[in-house]
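re: that complex we talked abt at group meeting.

here r the seqs, copy pasted straight from the sheet so there may be weird spacing, ignore it
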Amino acid sequence: MKKNLVTVLLGVCAVLSLVALPFLAGRVLAAPAEPAPKTVDIGMLAALTGWGSAAEVPISQGAVVAQEYLNQKGGIKIKGVQYNIRLHIEDTKGTADGAVAAATKLVYSDKVKFVVGTVVPNVMEGAQTVTEPAKVLFVTAYNSGVPSQYSPKTPYTFVGQAATIEGTAICMKYLREAYPKAKKLAFIFPDDGSIPYLGPVLKRRAGEVGLTVVGDPVKWPDTTIDFTAIVARVLASQPDAIAMVNGWPQALGSMLKAAREQGFTGPMFAPHNAAPEVAQSAGLAASNDYFTTSITPNDPAMTPMIKQLAPRLQAKYGNISYYHFWGFQVVDVCRQGMEAAQSLDPTAVKAALEKIETLPTLYGTARMGGLETYGIKHTVCNPLPIQDLQKGISKHVKWVTFVSP
Amino acid sequence: MQIVVTGAVNALVLSSMYILVALGFALLLSIAGILNFAHGAIYMVGGYICYQFAVGFGLNLWLSLLVSVLIVGLLGLLLEKFCFRAFFGDMVNSIIMSVALIIILETTVNVTVGVYIRSIPQFASGIIRSGAISISAERIVTLIIGGILLLLFTLFIKKAKIGLEMLAISQDPVGAVLQGINIHSICALAFFMGCGLAAVAGCLMGAVFGLSPFMGDFILVKAIQLVILGGIGSTFGILVAGLIIGSIDATLPLFVTGAVTDVVGFGVIVVLLLLRPQGLFGRREP
Amino acid sequence: MNKANRKFSMWKGKTPTKAVIYVGLIIILFVLPLVTRSPYYLHILILTFIYIIATSSLRTIAISGQLSLGHAGFMSIGAYVSAVLAKELGWTPWLTIPLGGLATAAVAVLIGYPFSRLRLIYFSMVSLFFGVAILAVNATLSDYTGGAVGLIAIPPLFASSKLPYYYFCFVLLLLSLLALRRFEVCRIGMTVKTVAQSHWVASSVGIDESNYRVLALAVGCFFVGIAGAVYAHYNLVLSPNGFNLLASINLVIYMFVGGMGSFFGPLIGTATLIIIPELFRGIKEFVPYIYSGIMLIVIFLMPQGIASLLGQVKFWVANVRERKTVRHAS
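got the structure back, here u go
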C-alpha cells in the first residue's frame, strides 16, 4: 500500500465525515470583534477543549452575548466617554498548565487588565499565578469552596456570582420548607480539596435551619464513572436527604440514578446543576425529588434581563444553558465595577467593588458578601432561583437571596 | 445483603464491559501488532452514534445499537485500509497514527455535540426487586448481552476457520503467511470485530453511565490493564483479568474512597507482574 | 577522505558547517529575550526547553530498547518531591531540584530491575500503567500533594519575571543535552545500544543486560525528574492532570515526530509540536486539528521523523556538490 498523501487525506476525510455526518449541527464559536472608537479589553479564560468544556463553552458563549448586549446598550461609560468591550477568549484546555499559558497570553500579549472565567479550583489557581502578581482583576465564574482559590491572599480575585456555599445554604432552607419530614442530611463532595473547608461551614449552615448531618462526608474522585458504590456508602448512614455539593450535571445525574436504583426515594439536591441536564443524565425513571439553584429560562417569574437574554441566546446558539448566564454575569460584574469606580484601573475597580452596597445583576439585586466566611468580601451574592425536578419536568419555584456573612 | 448483591452484579457488569473493549484492543494488538490508543475513542463514537440514531432519528433503540455497530465496524475497516495498513509492523508510526486519531475523533465530537449532556435511553427500564434487594434491569441486561458476546467470541476464535487463522497470525505471522493465510484481509476483519465490540460496549455503557466525549480515555486505561494483567495473546487471560479488575472497581469503593481503589488495583497488577512478567496467561517471550 | 565523506562523519568530527549552525542557534536563543521582551513568548520557550529535556531523556531510555509510555509519571515524581520538600521543609529550590531528580532516578532503579526482564511491548505497557499508577499514589497522598486540586504556592526559583528563568532553563538544556550526548557516545552508552539491538549477542560477550537497561532508565529518569522539578518551581502550580497518560503519550509523540534515530529528533519534535499549535491560538477549539495534522503529515511524508528530513537535505546538498566536483574534474 503506497503511502500516498492524497489517499491518506481522502481516508481521513472519509473517517471524519462518517463520524460527523450523523450529527452535522455544529456551531463554531465566533467572537465578533466590535470595532469601536474606544475599547476596553477583557480577557476570558474558558476550557474550550478537554474536560469541563461541556460547561465552559456555554460560559464563553454567554460572555460573547454579554459583549454584544452591553455594547449595544452603550458600553461602559467612564467619565462621560463610552468604552466598548472587546472580549479576548483563550482556551485553558481544562488544566492548570493551560490556564497559566492562556493567562500569560492574555495579560502579557493582549495586555488585558481584566480577566473573567474559570470554574474548577486548580485551573483557577493556575490563572491566579499570573493575574495576582500582575494586579489584574479576576472575576471568576464560580467558587468551589477551596480556600486557596479565593481568600485574602488573592486580593484581585472576585467571585462573580453566588456559588457553592450560598447555593447549598439556600437549598438546605428550601429542603426544610418542601420536605419538612426530612431531618437527617448526608453530604457528597467531589474530591477537589474542598471538604476540609466546606464540611464545617455547611454543617453550621445546616444546623442553622434545623438539619442534622449524618455520616462522614463521602468524596468521589474526578474520574468516577460508576457511582453505585459511592451512593451505597452514603445510604449506609440512612439519611432522609442527600446534598450533592458540586460536580458536573453528568456526575450528578449518575448519582441520582444510582440512588434511586438502590431504593432511595428521599430528596436530593445540588447547588448550580441545572435540572434538565441532570435529568438527561439520570434518565426519566430517576428524575424525581431533585432540586437545585438554576434558571428555568422560559418561566414568567424570571427577571426582565433574563427574559431579554433568553431569545438572544436561543437565536444565536439554538439552546439556552444555565452556564450561558454565568458567562454574562462575570462580564457584567466587570462593567459594574468599572462604572462604580469611574476608572479602568484594576486597583480602583477593586476598591469600588469592595465598597459597593448593591449591584443590579441579571439575577436581580445582589449584595457583596463573604467577609466572615472567606475572610474577604469579594463574593457577589445574587438571588438564586430554585428549580425543582419531578417526573422529568423542571419547574421554577422561587427566588431566594442568601448573603454569606 | 443489598450491598453484597449490588456489588456482585456491578462487578459482573463492569467486568463484561471492560472485557468487551479489551478484547477488541487485544485483537488489534495480537493480529496487526498495533497499539491502538484510539480504541477508547472508537468506543465513545459508538455510543454517540447510537444516541444519534435512537434519539435524533427516533429509530428503535436495539436497531440503533446494531446500526452503530455496523457503522463503527465500517469505520474500523476504513481505518485499517487508509490509516493503519501503511504502517503494518511499524510500531512507532502506528502509535502516532492512533494518537492523531484520538485527537481528531474526540475534538470532532466535542465541538459538535460535546456541549450537550447526553445519555442513551435505557435498554431495559425498571428495577427488579426481590425482597430487600433492588437491582436495575438495565444492568442485568447489559451483563447478559456482554456475556453472550464473549461466549460467541470465544467460540469463534476456537472453532471457526477464520478464528483459527487469526490465532495463527497472532502466534506467528510469517508462518501464517506461508500457510496461505491472507494477513491483510484477516486484519481487516479483526478491525471490524474489534471496533464492533467496542461500539457495543460504548452503547451499553452510554446507557448506564451516560455519554461524554472523553469517556474513551477511562476505558482505554482499563483495556490496557486487562491486556497486561491477562497476558498478551490470551483470550482466557483477558476474561480472568476482567473479572479481577471489575470486581476490584465495583467492590472496593464501598469501603474506601476512590483514589485508594485505583492504587489497590494498580498495586495488585504490579505485584503480579513482578512475579510473572508476562501476565497471568501470557506467552513467555523466547 | 574527500569533502563529501567528511560530512557524514560523527559529531566528534566537528565539521565547520555543523559548528556554525550550533553556535549560531545558541547565540540567537541567547539574544532573543533581549529583543522580544514579551513574557508570553518567553513563557512558551521556557516550557519548550523544559520539555526538550524531558523528551531527550525519554530517548536515552528508548535507545536501550525500552520505550517508556509513563515518562510523564516520572516527571511528576521529580516535580512533586521537589515542590513538597521546598514547601513543607522550606528548603531552597536549588537544593530540592537535584533531590527531585535523584528521587526519580531512585524510583527508576527500584522498578527498573524487575521490569528489565520485560521485552519491548510488555515494558511499554507496564511503564504506561506505572505512569498512571503514580498519579493514583499522588491522589492518596493528597495531604501533601494536594491531590486533584494540585499543589499551589510552590516556592519559586527566582523572584518573579521570566528572564532569569529563561536563561536558567536554556543553560540547563544545553548542559543536559551535552550530558545525554556524552552518555550516548561513551563506552557505557554504546554498550546500552548494543544490548538494545541484540541481547543474545550482548550476553554472549558477557554483558549483563539488566544492569545496562536499568542504568539507561535511571539516567533518563534523573533528567526528566530535574525537568519536572524545574517546571514545578517555574509554574508555581502543579496539577496531576499535567502528568497524566496524555502527557506521557505527548512526550512519546514529540520524540517520534522529531525522529527517534537522531539525537536532535526530540528537540525538533518538541519545538515543532509545542510552538506551532501556540501560533494557531486564534482558531481556539480547533487547535487539536493542527496538532494531529502535523502528526499525520510527518508519518506519511517523513516516516523517520522530521530530523530525517534534514538528513536527507544534507545528503541531497552533498550529492549536488559531488556532481559539481565531478563535472569540474572531467
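couple things i noticed - Chain C has one domain: 3-329. Residues 1-11 of chain C have pLDDT under 50 and may be disordered.
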